[in-house]
Amino acid sequence: MSYCVNCGVELDDTAAVCPLCQTPVCNPSCPVDLESPKPFPVERSEVPPVSRVAVALLLSSMFLSVALVCGLLNLFLRTEHAWSLYVIGAAAMLWVWVVPPLLARQLSLLVRLLLDVTAIAVYIYLIALDLNGMDWYWGLALPVILLGGACVLVLSILLDEGRRSILSSVTLIIGTGGIFSVGVEYFIDQFLNHQWQPAWSLVVLAICVALIIPLIVVRRVPYLREEVRRRFHM
């Protein structure tokens, strides 16, 4: 066994140079073994990328098999409620969320968001179908889902306009959350009482405004902005 005369690292019998400092190995009592395989790779290579189509087919088969097994089991047991609809809807929703973006990474934001919102709406529809709750689905669940999708769309567009700072992004997120809470209470009151009586959503909105104002002040005052960046590494 040889050792490097420069750094002292232990050398393999096949090493012609030190792998650490590249010093040539010269040991007359232990010549370099040129026939044995190297203890480490000598050629640079890359791991071949996994086919996105293969991954998509694998995920699709998994979701489909889960849905079919649960559906057949529900038919075999003949229970009062179609509980398999929850599993089938969840599998379909996950498929829409995962597989299309995997196959087509160039999908626009609007198309992806439309697919996601549709998947959620269909899943909640299956739940309402099993519970005989079409009234609350059309009057409450679907409007809230559409409102959430619209808020996410507007927020995504605003965040994608140029390179926004962390303070600006947090401000937009908090403001969108406050507006969403007002919309949710509006739809709840319209569904239950057919009249909007704002209460808890105003509290949430007031808290959001109270959080936004200091962020705007910090964003507008240069020395405060620099102090926040320095302390929080923004």
SSE map:
Layout: E1 2-3, E2 10-11, H1 52-77, H2 84-103, H3 109-130, H4 134-160, H5 166-192, H6 200-220, H7 222-232
- Mean pLDDT across the residues is 85
Relative strand content: under 5%
- Point out poorly predicted stretches: none
Per DSSP, the total helix count is 7
* Helix-strand string: EEHHHHHHH
Kindly state the number of beta strands.
Answer: 2
| Domains, number | 3
Shape: flat
Widest beta sheet: strand line-up? 1-2
Q: What percent of residues adopt helix (DSSP H or I)?
A: 55-70%
Description:
The chain is mainly alpha-helical. The chain folds into 3 domains: 1-36, no CATH class; 52-132, no CATH class; 135-234. 66% of the residues lie in helices and 2% in strands. It has 7 helices and 2 strands, in the order ββααααααα. It has a two-stranded antiparallel ribbon with strand order 1-2. Strand 1 (2-3) and strand 2 (10-11) form a beta hairpin. The two termini are 52 Å apart. The mean pLDDT is 85.
What's the gist of this structure?
This protein is mainly alpha-helical. Helices cover 66% and strands 2% of the residues.
Tags for this model:
single chain, 234 residues, mainly alpha, 3 domains, two-stranded antiparallel ribbon, 2% strand, flat
